[in-house]
Amino acid sequence: MFRKIFFVLMLVLLAVSVIGCKGKGKTKVGISFSDFATERWKNEADLMTKLLNDKGYDVIVQEANHDVKLQNDQIDNMVTQKVKGLIIIAEDGDAAATAVDKAAKAGVKVIAYDRLIKSANIAAYISFNNTEVGRQEALGVMTALGIPGNAKWTKDNPAKIVLSGGSPTDNNAHLVRAGQMEIIQPYIDQGIIKIVADQWVDNWDPATAEKMMENILTAQQNNFDGVIASNDGTALGELQAMKAQGLAGKVPISGQDATADGCNSIVKGEQTVSVYKDIRLLSPMAVDMIDKLIKGQSISGLKGYKMADLTGDTTKTGEVQCLFLPVQQVNKDNVYDLIVKSCFQPYADVYRDITDNLPAKVTCP
Q1: Does 192 score more than 60 pLDDT?
Q2: Which domains occur in the chain, in start order?
Q3: Best label site of 164, 189, 273, 323, fewest CB within 10 Å?
Q4: What are the pLDDT digits (tens) for 68-77?
């Protein structure tokens, strides 16, 4: 009898021990992506997953394929799975606020990653200086046209400019546009440039941008002088349409992200300028920040911004803790030193299909 009782007790203790071990599993962190169609997101998903794993976290990665409702459902599901932290790249900064508010109420720490979520319940927003991105895009195109200073452009003969914004649901697209307008509004007021078309590209989709540009080319009879496009993907889509009309390399066009394809287009003399945002800094920063938030540790470098100022919407209330990284303009003169030598993009990708006057080869880890 004693042996049976002892055996039963041992089984109970073993079961309790196993359950206890399961209860002490790794802390979970969720990463929610709007899409993986944008070139950079999959790379950043892999990097953040590795860095979080190295810190001992279990990581759940979800991708919403540009579906606003699906992204919110995925965020809700990750909260149900007991994540302690969320890093969110929002498809729609307004819509994501609903899921974020619920997550925050459940005690989950939320970082808005490179796209603002319009909720004062996010723990932090980290990004690049998106207004400066727009400034540098516009400056690149203006410089290529010789503005200011080129006597060719007058009130009687203004430079005809196409504006191409990013996804209207992405707050960054509006910050970028604000930066562009800071540069070009004085020239509009002087009458030396004229906006002949203004488009916004849903989902930053290159194919959509290409179709829009085809329509602009038809409407303007191929007669415009510059395109201020908001990222490399949309710029490259627009260049496809412009190539068909013999305008690639003749009409300056901007972008951002310093993608491999964008930089390749720059060295080929087609895309004029991109804007370098070193995402290698952003992902580790997000990982360190979510780790500190989960552990209740202080975070240096954050600064409070009013939601109304971040969005340009005076109806938005509350303040958000933010950290913005600097950006740099990329053009044909500095792409090698800034992008290739720093190993941000591979030499072989940037100089793909180019055989003449190649700079010294760079080998990266």
Answers
A1: yes
A2: 25-122+278-325 (3.40.50.2300), 130-277+329-350 (3.40.50.2300)
A3: 189
A4: 999 999 999 9
